[in-house]
């Protein structure tokens, strides 16, 4: 049950006080949180010792799309800002509360979680501590930065096409996208019913694991490190890759082989169907289903880029949408069967974080956004689980990703611990 975590119930009040002081006096905290929760956090810290959980006393940030009792769930939009406060915590958040977590605040994000880069024109864009002046990654931008800067131990977020793993990769932390069905969506603002997953980011695999287990309602039983066969897909993930990313990934492969892991490069036949599964069919249509009233009546209050992506739902007929869902179901089955007990090994993203100033033009933004999402989106389309693991190479903060078939979360985390130790 024990793990070398940086938090304890006894230190919760002291660490919270120090964190709130740091946030109030640190310019890098600007735009990270939409709202701090000092009153609730102090009460939680004072009661942390009463929770019989390895998470008791951990400082947690919560993405602004989760219901938190007494707070308005804005999803970092203007159109939801006047909604009534939530009457209860989202289910996963309530489980963290019972486990003794301390909620520092609600974190900033891409509006409606609809971007892989993390920019927000309404509430500002969190600064990237690993790459100053560059995009922090999205959509869980504030959550990633809250961990990277040490304000929080764990960030709770969502992942529709990489929204936990891209910001983890861009800021140098660990991001875990569980199999969708393991964590209930109750009490979270959706983007895509098909693709959304809720999960954690932290500094280590073990910290992500304990948070996920509690969010999922599981026993907090840490996995023992266990290697798995790793497959580098020869037919996916390496187009338009930056030299720094490619060189770093090659070093990762050599390091892992030297550590005794079995790594093979081969084509994955199922991935030949992936290009025929446009994620935007699901995100545009399903987001419109949830937010159509605001889309039609409050267009001027939207991030124009988000509104434009939602508008693409009008390019898809009902028949085409259903055909995409049907093809996805077939792909999920084929991918899971072909991968078996092996796991994919890929760069989390093919590109380094772009400079924010280079994203002013919509065409440039869209190109960078699609490239950031390309590799991680595979796990969402495949209803798989995946984890982004940070490493350093050539003075750069980089990230490698493991992808396992859906339902193999425990095996993925066990293998991730082996990879983490080797890196």
Secondary structure layout:
Blueprint: H1 12-25, E1 33-36, H2 38-47, E2 59-63, H3 91-98, E3 102-107, H4 141-148, E4 154-159, H5 165-171, E5 174-177, E6 197-202, H6 205-215, E7 230-233, H7 243-258, E8 263-266, H8 279-297, H9 304-311, H10 318-339, E9 343-347, H11 362-381, E10 385-393, E11 396-404, H12 409-422
Parallel strand pairs: 2-3, 2-4, 7-8, 7-9
Antiparallel strand pairs: 1-3, 4-6, 5-6, 5-10, 9-11, 10-11
Task: Provide keyphrases for this structure.
alpha/beta; 423 residues; 11-stranded mixed beta sheet; globular; 15% strand; Amidase signature (AS) enzymes
Binned strand content:
5-15%
CATH topology: Amidase signature (AS) enzymes
Summed up, the domain count is: 1
Q: What is the count of β-strands?
A: 11
Q: Give the CA-based shape.
A: globular
Mean pLDDT: 97
Ends: how far apart? 25 Å
**Uncertain ranges:** none
The CATH homologous superfamily name equals Amidase signature (AS) domain
- List SSEs in N-to-C order: HEHEHEHEHEEHEHEHHHEHEEH
Walk me through the structure:
- By secondary structure, the protein is an alpha/beta fold.
- It has a single domain, classed as Amidase signature (AS) domain (Amidase signature (AS) enzymes, Alpha-Beta Complex), CATH 3.90.1300.10.
- Helix content is about 35%, strand content about 15%.
- The chain is built from 12 helices and 11 strands.
- It has helices at about 10-25, 40-45, 90-100, 140-150, 165-170, 205-215, 245-260, 280-295, 305-310, 320-340, 360-380, 410-420; strands spanning about 35, 60-65, 100-105, 155-160, 175, 195-200, 230-235, 265, 345, 385-395, 395-405.
- An 11-stranded mixed sheet has the order 1-3-2-4-6-5-10-11-9-7-8, with helices on both faces.
- The longest helix has 22 residues, at about 320-340.
- The protein is globular, with a radius of gyration of 20 Å.
- The two termini are about 25 Å apart.
